[in-house]
Amino acid sequence: MQSCSRVLLLTCFSVLLIAPLMLPGCSPTPSSPRAIGQPPARAPSFVAWKSETVLEASHGDALRGLLLAKRCDHCHGSEGFSANANIPNLAGMERLAFWKEMEDFASGKRNSEVMSSIAAPLTRQDSADLAAYYSMLPTAADPLDRQAFPQAATPAAQSASAGRLIVLGDVGRGIPPCQACHGPVGFKTGAPSLAAQNADYVLRQLRDFASGARANDINMPMRSIAGLLTEEERQALAGYYGSGLGRLPASAVLPK
Amino acid sequence: MSGEAIGARRARARTAVLQMLIVLLIVGTPLAMTRFYEFDSPLWRALMGHRRVDPETLHLQGEFVENNLGTAREADGSYTLRMIAQQYMFVPHCVRIPAGVPVHLRLTSADGAHALTIVGLDFLLKAAPTSVTQATLRIAHAGVFPMPCAEFCGPGHLAMNARLEVVPAERFQNLQPTDRVNCAVP
Questions:
Q1: Given the DSSP bridges, would you call strands B79-86 and B103-109 parallel, antiparallel or unpaired?
Q2: Which residues, numbered 158 to 177 in chain A, qualify as contacts with chain B under a Cβ-Cβ cut-off of 8 Å?
Q3: Which domains, ranges and CATH numbers included, belong to chain A?
Q4: A76-115 pLDDT, tens per residue?
Q5: Which of B50, B54, B56 to mutate to test the interface with A (most CBs of A within 10 A)?
Q6: Residue A190: CB partners within 8 Å, gap ≥ 6?
Q7: Which of A43, A187, A229, A240 is at 20 to 30 A from A180, Cα to Cα?
Q8: ipTM above 0.85, yes or no
């Protein structure tokens, strides 16, 4: 009896182990890609979302961030809403996205005359603290403050075309829906929320991604998408987010 | 306790273990057969001859850095096409290969499970983080094929759709060893 069960046990294990190897589709993949002829790597960003990096970037001290943020007030507003639509709002910015951009400014992977010199002396901890602070600010702006957000609403036809791209994307061209990564439906690690972002800033980023002037997106999703969009679509999307519609479910603007 | 009672208890325990194993076998075998490419353990990799590809650092090192993606020409006249699957794009999102020539498609994923299919051909290649999947394509006729994702990967899955351009071999550009070609926009 005992030996019988032992045999059974062994059979179970060996079948479990061997079964996948017997399948035709499971032959071992040749695993040695030759390094010959490989061009030298061009890294879009030195940030890699390993679990320790995610921990580091998302566990800042918001109080220390508040003190550090005093020097950002002049351009980005005391509540994270800038007075100039060309300058991004930082209120409610995703922590990881904020942290990554600061690292990229500091390492020169994202070019900005102003931000490179500001970000360069900051430590990784400083960026994490600032990220913690700005991510806590509400995305509803104080109406008494001087701010560019929200901008005037775009024409209905334009916001409907933007809404379609945001909810559904474009299957034929392979443009994924914006809300799958930039919220409110889904967030991808390191993707910023666009709930309260200025139109001019969004438009400039889309154009820069399309032209390659900005190239710090890891595995190039944004360069690909911005390049697939037409100029009208870029303007429609920027206007849509700039007018504050990004906070609502995008289906609200779709024609019935 | 009498020896008989202990013996009976042992027998019951043995039956219980055996039953658990049978359940494990029934549940585990189909899982192992369909999801084998998602397993990631040193033993498994040694068995399968896989080398671990770190999904978080694809853009920093290895064969999937962004300027090594696309079609490359090998010394033996075949081609290698490297692509990354990620939420919710294949990168490069438009690829170009010559017709009638073997093209080794090497695919990995930067996040979850994806599957690359070619509409009009009987082709599906799964992509999983930490491993490289490979298949050889030999498409006889020139044409343009959509390449949608066939593994539900999230809210953007439906729009995850790349484009494959197969051009006649004589019209395919002559590639130097360091050249990588694709038809993506930027």
A1: parallel
A2: 168-177
A3: 51-136 (1.10.760.10), 156-253 (1.10.760.10)
A4: 988 899 988 899 999 989 999 999 999 999 999 999 989 9
A5: B56
A6: A47, A49, A94, A96, A97, A100, A218
A7: A43
A8: no
